[in-house]
Amino acid sequence: MSYTTENLWEVFESVRERGVRVHCLTNSVAQSLTANIMLACNIVPSMTAAHDEIPAFIESVDGLLLNLGTLDGKRRHGIRLGLEGAAKKSMPVVLDPVKVDRSDIRMEFAKDILKENVSILKANMTESAGLSGAVTENTLIVRTGIEDAVFGRETTYTVGNGHAYMDKVTGIGCALGGVLAGFAATEPDKELAVLAVYGVCGEIAAEQANGPGSFTPAFIDTLYGLKADQFNERLKLETMNNKGGVLA
User: CATH number of the domain at 5-241, out of 3.40.605.10, 3.40.640.10, 3.40.1190.20, 3.30.300.30?
Assistant: First the structure.
């Protein structure tokens, strides 16, 4: 399936209008920024990692983010509880395997999670390479980097937008996982729109910023106020079949 900028903008508008809820079992470093970025897209976050509360919160949300940053025994158990609840509701689950390439324990835990009902693996090139053999055909791969990409069964989509500041702020990438879960809950199989919006907003925000510190509020404001004409004018989208040919 091919997408136009108009198609992708309609997905973003649908997310803004619906206001889905996503529970984020994410790392402690990224919680605040993740919540604020999700709210700018009208995705309602919840963040509790308390084991006695996770099941109740999962019952009232539409999607789940599992982020492996600041991982410890308690967080691993909380992730298990989240997966159990998500399976009962058949909700989309996004896995962000932060730094699995740095820890064998973390890598094995991520591989184990991928045996469950994981809808989207959001990872950089190194992380995704380490997990490639564990990903099933039911899991969509979203790879972030100099060019962000979504790998479908037959087609790969790349987004050439973004800015270097996005890699200089702790939590920008982690927040993408929460936004992905919100998009997946609203418009399944159209998660490409997230990368498109994220990249375009990164470019616009960077033009207003003097560095990473001022970039962060500018990025949140841009997500909140992004207009269709800005999106349509800036999006750099390329579609390729999975044999390497560029599609018209």
Answer: 3.40.1190.20
Q: Low-confidence residues of the chain, pLDDT below 70?
A: 1, 243-248
What span, in angstroms and rounded, lies between the C-alpha atoms of 178 and 77?
20
Report how far residue 190's alpha carbon sits from residue 193's, in angstroms, rounded to the nearest whole number. 6
Q: Which of 92, 40, 89 is nearest to 197 (CA)?
A: 40
Strand order across the beta sheet in which 120-124 lies: 44-46, 21-25, 63-67, 93-96, 120-124, 140-144, 148-151, 155-159, 237-241
H or E element: which one contains 212? helix 212-225
Cβ pair 131, 99 in contact under 8 A: no
Single-letter code of the amino acid located at 242: N
Backbone angles phi, psi at 71, to 5 degrees: -80, 135
Pairing verdict, β 148-151 and 140-144: antiparallel
Tell me how far apart the terminal alpha carbons of the chain are, to the nearest angstrom. Answer: 12
Q: What is the pLDDT of residue 189?
A: 86
Q: Name the residue type at position 211.
A: G
Report the distance separating Cα 58 and Cα 50, nearest Å: 12
Rounded (10°) CA dihedral 83, 40, 236, 152? 10
Paired tokens of 114: 């991928």
The pLDDT assigned to 1 comes to: 60
